[in-house]
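Example record

The entry below shows one chain as it appears in the dataset: sequence first, then C-alpha cells.
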Amino acid sequence: MHIWILRLASDTQTMFSLLLLVLHILSHSVAHFGDWSDYVDLSYTFSDATIFFPGQTPFSLTKTFEWPRANATSKSRPGESQAREYYQAFSFCMGEHGGTHLDAPYHFWESGWTVTDIAPDRLLDVPGAVIDVTSTVEKAASPEKYELTVANVMEHESKHGEIPKGGVVLVKTGWSRYWGDKTNYLGMGVGANDTRTLAFPGKQN
C-alpha cells in the first residue's frame, strides 16, 4: 500500500516547496509508481463542514473573478452555439489544523523539522502499515480516551510482520464514523472553542 500525505502550509516558502513536490509527482508516469489501484486516498473534501481544531479558521472558498466573453475571432457554423472564452479564479482561507493533513515535527517540538525540512522520499511512495484497533476502541469503557499501546503494535506485527523501517504507521480507530459531527468527533464541551474537554482516541492527556 502506498500513502501520499500533503498539507496546506501557511508560509510562502513552504507552499512553493509543496508546489514543486506536486509537480514532481505529476511528472512521473504511472509505470514508475505501479498500479494506481495500489494507492488509497485518505483525505476528506474540504468544505464549510470540515472539522477544524478549536480556534482555527474554518474553510471558505470565494470566487474572486469570472470572465465570460464571446470569442470574436471564432465563427460559429449554422446550428452551433458561438465559442466562448472563459476564465475564473478563486481564493480560499483556512486554518492549518483541519481535515486530513500532516503535522511536521516542528508543530510539537521547537527544534523539529518544518514541512520544508522533510525529504520527499519520506512522504512519497513509502511503505505503510495500518494498525486496526477499531474493535478495541469500540469495546473500551471510555472509547474517547483510548491510546495506542505497545501491545497493539506487537499484536499487529505478530499477524502482519514487522513494520518496515522508514514506513508510515496509520492507526485505524474507527472514529471516522463521527466525521461531520464536531461534538462527538472532538468531544467538545459547551464552548465552541473550549479545548479543556477534548477527548478522542490517540490524544494523550
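Notes for this example: Residues 1-12 have pLDDT under 50 and may be disordered. The longest strand covers residues 60-70.
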